[in-house]
Amino acid sequence: MARPDTPAIQAQAVRVTQTRTIPIRGEASLGKDVRDLLHEVGTALDQHRPLRAHVHGLITVDKQSPVVTATQENGNERQRATGPSARSWKRAARRQGAAGGPWAPSTSSRLGGDVLRAPYECQVKRLAEAYPTLQTFSDDDGMWLFAKSSIIPGLPREATFLIALPYKPGPGPRAWGFWTGAAESSRWIGPRHTNFRDGSICAFSPNEGAWFEGGDLPTLLDLYSVWALRHLHLEVMGRWPGKQYGILGADPRAEAYYRQRECRDDELCGCGSETRRYAECCKASDLRCDFIESASLFLQHTGGFETRVPPPSVVSFVQGQSAAPKMAEVHLQLLV
Ligand SMILES: [Zn+2]
Description:
With 336 residues, the protein is an alpha+beta fold. The protein has a 5-stranded antiparallel beta sheet with strand order 5-6-7-8-9. Helix content is 27%, strand content 14%. A hairpin with a 2-residue loop joins strand 5 (135-139) and strand 6. The protein starts with 31 loop residues before the first helix and ends with a helix. Zinc ion binds next to loops.
């Protein structure tokens, strides 16, 4: 297989025949090479095989490592994903983004307790080697990261992430993903596996060891890149690849309602099963739940599906229409 670090953009001669859930505006049909890679990674996610992240956030199946990486879990799901040992960077090209310039430390931390400042500051250069489009912006409460990820070789669009990294321990990172590129006018990536109330990325759980506050920033962006790849798979192939989990801390009836609304029959069941598809796992019992009661409990716990939208100031920034938002105004855990 060609090295993913130096992808060759090949002629797109094969028409896409599978149904898409969302039209890809202005984008030529994905070529067979891209679709094959997407299918390959999706299959690996379903089979819990390790992936490998390359420079620019290109994700491939890790065919070299015999070691299965630790299970990753997020607020709603688990995923096999990349880890520091799985990363393979061939190049370290770095260029500073024009809009934000190099990161500079802010002079104050509004909330104090900025013990995470140093662990993050010292990683910025290395992160820019992994994600060369990286721009950083200082904020009273931490640091913003803004970076693009190529996802898979040959993909005409890219994923752009805006990530809030508070310096205060506890709130954790908050990130939003958008499809951008020549044919894309920044389209939010969601709503599947985004957080309720702000549409932020739900790509791992802080209590499962996938990533921890103050931890490896390239790994954090790799996890977001894999999450974006899953979204691409959902859009093109019609199903979410890999393991899925329900809502942490929710009533089982609310979970049942969530699965009914979100899980497709041929996806791995949202209860966290590693082998059973929804139609052959929890679907029958979910359908026996009282619908009104389940929906009500779900609404109480989450605020509802329609709350999964990004804050306007985040959208405005990604569209180049405003400066980076104030972290305290868009990060839910900083608001309380
Ligand atoms: Zn199940």
